[in-house]
Structure to design on (277 residues):
């Protein structure tokens, strides 16, 4: 099942995507509040009639979770990206956070910050937590994940590397676009998905999630040793090689550029870069 947030002109709604149509799920308020008892809605949602919905092309898709309680992202998690970064393969998972205010819609503009000129993209598979848990065993991780979507861990490189802690350079407003919807975990093998990023149509990143160093279930197990994972929390699971900062010469994003990230079976997000107003 594909679960989206959208606005057809009357405010945010939760919808189910079927083909090229979206059907109102009849659930009020943000998605995260419905995840603990999602199983109670499943049979009704699976029976929705596409004819009662709207064409996808006629609605604005929104970030599927508008205010995630936590956004964690792992660094250095594909071998080719580790090599291009000049850093060693980490023995322990390297985590940073992205601010809640960096959340952005799947097709909304991404701001090029006033204060810096080193804006970069990172195509990433994003896992959405569905069930609360602490000390989640690797074998139980899948049961705690509601589903998966496409994300761009947009990064301000100069700010990322100005200090040992990366979070500020990862947390500018609009720098966490994700979507276009959540595909529920029962339909996804998260470790066998082609992932690709283009800028203005030119391919920059192309890999497969089978190349993750720490896989998604290891990530859930590790994070949950420290903190309770809650419905709606997001995990950005790492980016493959090909970021602009590693090119020679380096190629950063400029206003007018269009960045597209697509993942096999999960759809695509596309964001235009605009100067910060
Ligand atoms: Zn990243």
């Amino acid at each position: 099942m594909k679960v989206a947030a959208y606005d057809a002109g009357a405010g945010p709604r939760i919808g189910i995507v079927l083909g090229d149509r979206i059907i109102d799920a009849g659930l009020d308020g943000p998605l995260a509040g419905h995840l603990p008892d999602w199983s109670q809605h499943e049979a009704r949602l699976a029976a929705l009639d596409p004819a009662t919905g709207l064409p996808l092309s006629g609605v604005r898709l929104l970030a599927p979770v508008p205010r995630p309680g936590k956004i964690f992202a792992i660094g250095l998690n594909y071998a080719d990206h580790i090599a291009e970064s000049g850093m060693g393969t980490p023995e322990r998972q390297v985590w940073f956070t992205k601010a809640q205010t960096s959340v952005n819609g799947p097709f909304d503009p991404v701001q090029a910050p006033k204060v810096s000129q080193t804006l970069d993209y990172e195509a990433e598979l994003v896992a959405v937590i569905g069930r609360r848990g602490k000390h989640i065993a690797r074998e139980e991780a899948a049961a705690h994940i509601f589903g998966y979507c496409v994300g761009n861990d947009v990064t301000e490189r100069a700010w990322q590397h100005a200090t040992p802690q990366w979070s500020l350079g990862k947390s500018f407003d609009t720098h966490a676009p994700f979507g276009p919807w959540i595909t529920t975990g029962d339909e996804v093998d998260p470790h066998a998905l082609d992932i690709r990023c283009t800028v203005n149509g030119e391919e920059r990143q192309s890999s497969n999630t089978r190349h993750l160093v720490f896989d998604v279930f290891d990530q859930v197990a590790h994070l949950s040793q420290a903190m309770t994972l809650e419905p709606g929390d997001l995990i950005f699971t790492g980016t493959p090689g090909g970021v602009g900062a590693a090119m020679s010469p380096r190629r950063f994003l400029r206003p007018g550029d269009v960045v597209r990230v697509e993942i096999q079976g999960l759809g695509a997000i596309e964001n235009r870069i605009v100067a910060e107003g």
User: Anything to note?
Assistant: The chain has two domains: 2-62, 71-275. Residues 216-226 form the longest helix (11 residues). The chain is about 15% helix and 35% strand.
